[in-house]
Amino acid sequence: LNKSNRHVIEESLVQLRCHFAWELLFEDIEMPDLENRIFFLFSKQPTGLCEISENQEALESLKEAEDLIQQEHDIQSDVRSLVTWGNYAWLYYHMGRLAEAQAYLDKVENTCMKFAAPSCYRMECPQMDGEEGWALLKCGRKNYERAKACFEKALAEDPENPEFSTGYAITMYRLDSLNMATETSEAFCLQPLKEAIRLNPEDVYIKVLLALKLQDLGQEADGEKYIEEALNNTSSQTYVFRYAGKFYRRKGCLDKALQLLKMAQQATPSSAFLHHQIGLCYKAFTIKIKRAANWQRRGQDRENVHRLVHLAIYEIEKALMLRPTFKFAYIELAVLPWPPCSVGSLLHPVPLPPACAHSLSLCLSLYLSSESTHGQ
Fold first, then answer.
1. pTM attached to this predicted model
2. Domain ranges of the chain
3. What's the pLDDT tens digit per position in 92-118?
4. Does Methyltransferase count among this protein's keywords (predicted)?
5. For residue 317, which of 263, 288, 278, 356 has the smallest C-alpha distance?
6. pLDDT digits (tens, 9 = 90+) for 237-276
7. Tally of CB atoms within 10 A around 173
8. How far from the centroid of its chain's Cα atoms is residue 230's Cα?
9. Superfamily of domain 3-158
């Protein structure tokens, strides 16, 4: 194609609504962990995530998405086709394969004409707002506020849509988790989660999120009912196991928590979240043993505590290798018991992000002060 045609293609590309045009902000974390975190969400919204892959991997991702979309026969499948074709067009453009880019632009144009869209390459509808919301949600916390706005816009047009409701509930849960420091933020996601379950009672992912939120609010017994329902369902087991494991760890059922977390880890071994949760289980075991022994160091109890502390350090350091900006993991290392282990671990050459430095220094100084005072 000549320069004139290339310019026409470029003008068409910027009108598309797809991942390349949505200015997605990826978190500053290691890619294997990001891929684990979007694994479940991709299965719900298969439009392809080209930005996190090399060209060939991106094409394979888009082909997989296209195959899944062809199994659907509704307006949502047409919209997802627009997103996927837009991704194809951008990707082929970046690869210098302009004829193929134009072919996918033609597909987009024909579909927009089918729905009498005001633009040749852009369709405005709740389904497209939902797709943008899912894309933003998949890519991490920097995008959550924009994802929330997209789902709110989609729900304003179609309030009974289970997919939009689910996306909105997950987004609100994630935003609540980022703002746990303020009391008023804790319940913002409660009603959206309940509404999502009303519209899609078989969605086990939403059930485990609601269970964790109820646990946050002191309604653990009610939350456990949702956990049990989710565990009795065979779908989305990896994410059910991971969040059920977190639930039971916080409840103090450590053996059950560890079993569930390790089951989830078999499917996603490079998950920083899972390594961190398993490390917290080992830490909780040490506290349980020391309390049972009235905080006295003796015999086999002392050996077990040392062994568990080393296991906790191993798992939390593994989490930091996978996600170097994992602030809470740094803090957990600082407050692990038995200073010879915990302090030695902190001196390992793991780069410390500036945002973590103050929290880590404060926790470590308070911990060492406590140790010198109480002799523990």
1. 0.81
2. 3-158, 271-374
3. 998 899 999 999 999 999 999 988 888
4. no
5. 278
6. 888 999 999 999 999 999 999 999 999 999 999 999 999 9
7. 21
8. 19
9. Tetratricopeptide repeat domain (1.25.40.10)
